[in-house]
Amino acid sequence: xxxxxxxxxxxxxxxxxxxxxxxxxxxxxxxxxxxxxxxxxxxxxxxxxxxxxxxxxxxxxxxxxxxxxxxxxxxxxxxxxxxxxxxxxxxxxxxxxxxxxxxxxxxxxxxxxxxxxxxxxxxxxxxxxxxxxxxxxxxxxxxxxxxxxxxxxxxxxxxxxxxxxxxxxxxxxxxxxxxxxxxxxxxxxxxxxxxxxxxxxxxxxxxxxxxxxxxxxxxxxxxxxxxxxxxxxxxxxxxxxxxxxxxxxxxxxxxxxxxxxxxxxxxxxxxxxxxxxxxxxxxxxxxxxxxxxxxxxxxxxxxxxxxxxxxxxxxxxxxxxxxxxxxxxxxxxxxxxxxxxxxxxxxxxxxxxxxxxx
Length: 358
What we know:
It is a single chain. By secondary structure, the chain is α+β, with helices and mostly antiparallel strands. It has 16 helices and ten strands. It has two domains: 5-84 and 107-179, no CATH class; 199-352, no CATH class. It is 39% helix and 11% strand. The chain has a four-stranded antiparallel sheet, with helices on both faces. The chain is elongated and about 80 Å long. [4Fe-4S] cluster 2 binds at residues 204, 220, 247, 250.
């Protein structure tokens, strides 16, 4: 008997919601020639910075069927992540003594949460149709997830390069399930809805969005605080403000995020008061504090040294106070060369403003 693939597609979307995803759509494995052209131009411009893995797989990033042979469809899924109890991002950014951490990183590591749910979805599909070829991805392999999601009609690529939806804005994670099943394809959206708006370009603190749909990662605060292993360029440090892990500005000022929906996922609830902790408080953490408190979070992967590096920059940009100066001075003697460079810079900023350690 011929299987009803349309019915299965409907079941998959229903199972996805039962597993905590907010939406699921099915797209073709062919992402289109324009995606490859865009990737090539972005890499040629050097916009990927030190993220060599972006170029390592060549065009496999844009060709799911080459990355995972046999792939016929890409099931794209999204899950909202903004925790409802978190302190207002705008309030934290306005408080120079507070440490701003991107809202996606306040709870459990999303890689683990989504990967577990995707595996369960794959198992449900297998229970229904028998063994299938599949592979799950959560921002951890050469997958152009926004392009795949856009192809599946899950939303449209905004000018900040993130996926946008009219109903949920952009505060959500994406995950993919590559499959060899001949599922019916959902059509892409008929149009994007950014129009003439350039709010995300205008508000980017470092002007990393160099043109609509183009981000120079070398200037992006998320790249500088998470991906960059060495020193943050001195000319960009003042522009980071108190952003010590990631940056949400392009999302915070996007008009579509008036419709963003908070998460109901308990795993994304705020941990360790990270939604409004002070820079001084976090800078005082020992390495063991860092390991104990941030285990199981996305922040854990940058390691203690980069954590201190980022906080030192935040403290350099903070209002001068005895507590801030004392915090910086307390780590000068035992800091690694990388951290000490940023502490020295931070102290110099305060000295230029007339502050004194005396």
